Amino acid sequence: MQMTRILPDLQCSLLCEQIRREATGNFFIIGIVDGIATQQLPLMISQLCVFNRWTAGVGQFKECVRLVAPDQTTVLHKSEAKFELKDPAQYCTIPTAFRQMEFKAAGTHFIEVLVDDVMKLRYPMPLVLVQPNPNPQPPPGRPAS
């Protein structure tokens, strides 16, 4: 019996600092990112990663992960990957790494995850410009100098 093509579900998408693969084949996600705080712009970040897992689909697909600027139209970074699911019980994990990223503006950026040009998820990544503390306090237990 030939299965019809079924668009997959996005089981999860996590923004993080690093993704590693262990000898067992399992993934190790390091530094889940809620947002970014900086004291100055522009800000250079050597790497941000997106960990996506697809399931419950059948067929060949193209994943697209985009980092969108606060204006909600400018695509700052984009990555595409092809994958296949032969059975709805299978899953496919796609780690994406955006390298050497320059952020010129503060504001809410967005991570968009699409499959075959269908938006599956869009979530915020705030980049906040913070003022340096003019009177830093010493860590507890250390005398002030």
List the helices and strands and how they pair.
Elements: E1 9-21, E2 27-32, E3 36-38, E4 43-55, E5 59-68, E6 75-85, E7 91-103, E8 107-115, E9 118-129
Parallel strand pairs: 3-9
Antiparallel strand pairs: 1-2, 1-4, 4-7, 5-6, 5-8, 8-9
Number of domains: 1
The stretches of 5 or more residues where confidence is low (pLDDT under 50) are none
Major pleated sheet: 5 strands, mixed
Overall 3D form:
elongated
Number of strands: 9
Q: Report the end-to-end length measured between terminal Cα atoms.
A: 77 Å
CATH architecture: Sandwich
* Structural class designation: mainly beta
User: N-to-C SSE series?
Assistant: EEEEEEEEE
Under CATH, the topology is which? Immunoglobulin-like
**Mean pLDDT score:** 93
